[in-house]
Specification:
The chain is α+β, with helices and mostly antiparallel strands. It is built from 29 helices and 21 strands.
Length: 734
Amino acid sequence: MQRWMNIVIVLLLTLMSVATAMLSLSALSDRYSRIISDYPQQSRSVFLTDIAQESSNSALDLLKTKVTGAHGIIIRTDSKLADNDEGAACGYLIGVFGDVQRHPDDARLTAFGSTVFDATTLSKLLRAEQHATLGLDQNRADMIADLPNVRYGTSVTVMQLDRLAERSGTVNGEYRIIGLSQSQYDALVSSLSAATGISTERLQQPLHGSDTTDNLQRTIAECLLAAAAILLTVILVLGAYQQFSTLGIHIMLGWSRIGYAWMEYRPMLLWSLVTLPIIAAGVFWGVTSFPFSGQLTAYCLTRGIVVCALALLAACLGSCVFLTVHPVDAIRNRISKRGLLVVLVILYCCSSGALVAGGTAMDSPMREVQHLSAIRASWSPYRSMRLLYHETPGTNQSSFTGQSSEHFKETYEWYSSIAGQQGAYIANMTHYNEDNLQSWKTIYHAAPEQPFWQLDASPNYLTDQGFAIPQGVTDRAKRGERIFLIPDTWTARQRTAMEKYQKLDSEHNAEWKGSIVTSYMKHRDISFVTYHPSVKLFTWNTDGTLPNWTTDPVILVCTPENMTPFEGENLSAVGLDNSMIKLSEPAAQQYTTRRYFAQYHLEDNNPQYIPVDDFIAGLTKTATQTIQFFGLAMAFLAALELVLSIAMCRIFAATYRTRIAVKRLLGYPLVSIFAPTFLTVVLVSTMSIAIAAFIHSTAAFAFTALLAVLQTVILLSDARRIATKELATMIAQE
């Protein structure tokens, strides 16, 4: 093969090795995560949820007492979240309590043929100080032993159960019990039900779940591996056709076709074997503190088989070219169109299909950018208003995993301290359509009669918008009374239906158990006041099909005192649609400093309130980066398609040199001379454009149409050059 082909082959195999190592490490991390989340295998579970703060210690003490009496073990596993990526799980925190020496087999956790921890190490942990850990948590000085982890993936930390409850700020969670008989377990559940007021059914059934999705890095690695494998196959097949003359000579000298193929592809296959230890080293580097075991070693060493298999498959396809040619034809370079042209056409169709799929995927971020541009224009009057953009879990990990509401209480107390101050507002508008009304009829057996807007707004926000609040409403709202303002343009029947729904909804949300308790929850006072619609109010809406202004919403005059727990916890909501708290620039400078947040234990969460304009710019940047990623992938596919179309043209020319020269001499048009190539390109391009139009993919339609024109121009130029060259060669030989 030519030198440049050998260099490209080595680079492609290296790229495939890197991608395979990334995928292997990701799969290893996922498998380790499942092993930890399923620990212990043999246990019975108790689910503590919505435990009031004042009764949390007694509930946990009762659980520990019952298990201690039975010489059992309690295991609680919480998700560990990364501070630099909200909501991203990076491992597990395991809390342990009980007589672990009594149940050594159940207490042991093994992964990949190695022991992660056993009863001995757990006993050492339980005898140590309360802050001691197995594996690194927050302080290396507290770590009494290291645990196996996956670099940039799943990590595990084990601590005493009391320390986990203290660290998370909640006793809510799943407690897996080892060592209790069925009767002892039933007695435990009954005792907990009596102590907490939670039904035995809820104590035995989870009220939450989790799911995992492929991340972008894994998708990129999969795309790189697939693209590199396709390119490798194309290069080997093209290289095989370039070797026909040499192949014919070797066959005449007694070489077999298989022997010649082995000689050609042996360096590449040997290099693919070299990638085995390279990939294994990469995977070994990715696992920290794992003891060497046969299972883990076998896993690491066998990951490179993927690269070897792909290289062998590409070599087999290249060898098929050698097996289909006769020695004399090879010497005289008489190349059969069978084989290579079929492969090229198949690859060409596949790349066209991938291009359409990529364009379809690009449509979503493109629409998002257009949507955000429209939002930027419609929200321009409020572009300097600040919204909550991001928070980190900090020490409130359990709040971000849904086990606790402590962080929401901190945010509620922070807002309560600034409520009513200049520039510190509650403003959230929601549109409820016919579908919402139908679902409410199912839940409440009552619903408003027509779709409507509802605005939850603080009194100072309404005042600053020029809305005249009826006399005395603000003071009553500050005393905990929920006051709804309903347009006087509604009929009496419509107002009655709305009042009934709002009462039921408020009562329902007031039953929400959490750490936030307001004056309304103690007295449950609700009243309704009519107003005359005259002031245009901004809808804070991102739905382009809905208006940006309205004059007749149902308005909840919202204060910290008359919130339900549902609204109180929503103060931490993030996003253009969801955010409740709105801050002016001066208010943000005064109330979002680290010192002010520290008064309410929010400094570790680092809440970021940024202007609407910056918020939209950040979302636009993310969507634009996604478009750039897909654009690069589609540019690669387009380049591959161009290369394949040119390759088809040249293989056709090499197969029918004499015919091309004669037809060129007789004045045939280029499209007629290279009819099979042009026909393939036109048919496939037309089908791609038709499919893109049928599925309404703007990006796919634009890419395929542009590429069709570009291919036609390039093919005409290349065909003219090839035909002229063949004609000149024929004349010279004559």
